[in-house]
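Chain A, query sequence.
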Amino acid sequence: MAPLADTRLYVPKLSEIPRDLYWLVIGDSGTGKTHLLGTLCELLPTVVVTADAKGLDTLQFMGLDPYVERITNLGAQAWDVLERLRAGAGTKWRAVALDDIGALQLRAHDKVITSAVGRNEEQLTRVQLQQHIKQQMLRGERRLRLDQWGEMGIAVDTFLDEVLTMPFTIKVATVLEEAREHPRTGQQHLVPNLLGGLRNDLLAQFSLVANSFIQREDGADHWCLTTRPHPRIATKDRYARPRTWVDPTAAKLLQHIKKGGDDKESKLEEKIGLGVIVEPARQQ
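Chain A, predicted structure.
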């Protein structure tokens, strides 16, 4: 990754940052998504929300210790988190980072699938219910019903909507990517690794959708981020002319937005960006 000093390429004043910046970063594991969140923590007071604490190792490696809200279940505990976020939005914290929406969705899945169903299960103790559910899952007998899918989707959508409507200057989220075959063309598309309708609805809620990846050029591996449009890669840039970054940081993204896309790509960035367009189906 780029040295931390590079993140100070451009340190904006709060008055220079447009309000309500919505960023979504989609990429494979290990492609720098959480590192990008870390560069945002260096610039602005940022609260990190995560349902998978293992991802915080990256921030610790960067020498950062931001305020973190951990989601252990998408029930009452999650709504307590929302209340704390609402109380600090725009004052205590200027930015919020949702690290891995997919992990948040899994918390909702766990809550729904481990809930008692029917009178017989409701009469079990908590320990008995857990053992009963575990045995059913091992035998492949427990599946989400249609109404449970709906309950899970509503829980995640509501939580996400609540966070995105809070008065943070920057709202950024990450999600793992997944290669899926298009039902009509048979081509492989890179999409958010999510369950249900959220996979399609998520993109519309963000103004900048970037894909993170590692590209090997001239014998070296480069950490990259692109918003260049492509029919098979989920990207979008409503702020400026799309481009590709090598060693991306939150500072570089803010500079890009402020300059309206007039921050020119380096020769290496242009070469990699054009390669993404020519070779969309990178090997996973």
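The radius of gyration is 20 Å. The CA atoms of residues 25 and 174 lie 5 Å apart.
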